[in-house]
Structures are given as structure tokens and as C-alpha cells.
Amino acid sequence: MSIDRLLTIMDKLEKMHKSLLKLSYHKTELIKVGDMKGIDQMLKDEQAHVAAITQLEQQRQKVVTEYLGAKGIAPSGQPTVADVMEVADSPEEKAQLDEVRKRLLLTIKTLKKQNDLNQKLVFQSLQFVNMTLDLLRPQPEQINYSKTEVRGNNMSKVHFDSQA
To answer: What is the DSSP string of 105-137?
Structure first.
């Protein structure tokens, strides 16, 4: 059995992740300028990419399982490309799989970093909005208590009996 189908799927996965990474870079710019409509559209585009990636990942798992089954190996847990690399027919196939696997992992690592940055930017934006809202809201009247009296901004001295 050939690894060509697996290599094709892995290439498609890499392309989809790179496309998602481009969207993530663009989302960073949208967050910086506060373009909510653009961010909303970006989220829809990202969801479509994630759905396509999920479908490709299912295909990859199926092909890996079939390949391992053809070699008489039942994978334990999730079937991986590393499992195929261990039983590949030739060093060339192993090298091809290793190369595409490394490229995909690098793209995913970069995507995670960019998503972390976007998450931090959104969090900082929310903090700024909350701080601004706190500054604009009327503050409740400050009331201070002492042992024998209560003082407020609009209250004259009021004595109260602490024995009550």
C-alpha cells in the first residue's frame, strides 16, 4: 500500500492551516483597529476552515488506520503519522512523511502563537472597555462609619447609639 493518499491529505491539512494562519494575522489587525464587523466575518471564515480541517483530519486518521491494517498492525489509540513512519516500506517514504509532518507541526505551532496573541489583545481590549465604563458610571456615595457616627457625602453628622 502506498503513502500517496496520506501525503496528499497531509499537504491539504498544511494548506488549510496556513490559510487559517493568514486569517489569524488579519484578525490581529482587525482587533487592533476595533473593526467588529470584520472580526465577526473573520470568525465565520475561521469556523469554515476549522470544519474543513476537522474533515481532513478524519480522512487522515482513516487512511492511517487502513495503512496500518494493511501492514497487519492494529493501532492503539489515535492512529498517527509517526505510526506509519515506523512501518513505512522505504526510507524515502519515511523521509517524505517526516518532512510533511514537520511542516504541518511548524504551521500549527505558529498558529497557536498567533491565536494566543489575539486572545491577549482581545482580553486587553475588554479590560480597557471595562475601565472606561467604570470611569463613566456614577460612583455610589461613600459612607464612612466611625465608632459613634456615620458620615456620608450628602449627610450631616448622624449620631447613633452603639448600645442598641
So the answer is: HHHHHHHHHHHHHHHHHHHHHHHHHHHHHHHHS
Given a cut of 90, is residue 133 above it in pLDDT? no
- Characterize the bridge pairing of strands 143-145 and 158-159: unpaired
Give the mean model confidence (pLDDT) for residues 60-69: 92
pLDDT at 81 over 60: yes
Burial (0-12, 13-18, 19+ Cβ within 10 Å), 17: buried
| Residue 52 neighbours by CB under 8 Å, 6+ apart | 16
* Residues of the chain above pLDDT 90, percent: 59
